[in-house]
Amino acid sequence: MRRTRTNYAMLSILTSGLMTIMINLSPQPLLILLVGSAVQIYLATGRLKDMNANPWWSALTLLPFVGFILMFPKGTKGANQYGEDPREKGNN
């Protein structure tokens, strides 16, 4: 599933905020960190598909600031090998 810049940014910020709160409250912060990292990789995979890039690059989002950089490039206009353009469907 392709993910627009706006959708990616909102969900990434929400995920990061929830992770921060839950890590501070949880007796198992490592578990929260692992689950949150998996969610961030999932979100980055959708964003990379929108940019017509290989989704395997999403593993790099585990490095600081790489996920932030994905908020800026525009996605591929029209359909690409990963599906229809989400902006044409009216989904943000």
What does this structure look like?
This protein is mostly helical and 92 residues long. It has one domain. Helices cover 55% and strands 0% of the residues. It has four helices and no strands. It has helices spanning 5-25, 29-50, 66-69, 86-89. Helix 1 (5-25) runs antiparallel to helix 2. It is elongated and about 45 Å long.
State the shape. elongated
Strand content: under 5%
Tally of individual helices: 4
- Distance from first to last alpha carbon: 12 Å
Q: How many whole angstroms does the radius of gyration measure?
A: 14 Å
Helix fraction, binned, reads 55-70%
Q: Number of DSSP strands?
A: 0
Keywords: Membrane, Transmembrane, Transmembrane helix
Protein name: DUF805 domain-containing protein
InterPro entries: DUF805
Transmembrane segments: 21-43, 55-72
Give a quick precis of the structure.
The chain has 92 residues and is an all-alpha fold. The chain has helices spanning 5-25, 29-50, 66-69, 86-89.
Write out key terms for the chains shown.
transmembrane helix, transmembrane, DUF805 domain-containing protein, membrane, DUF805
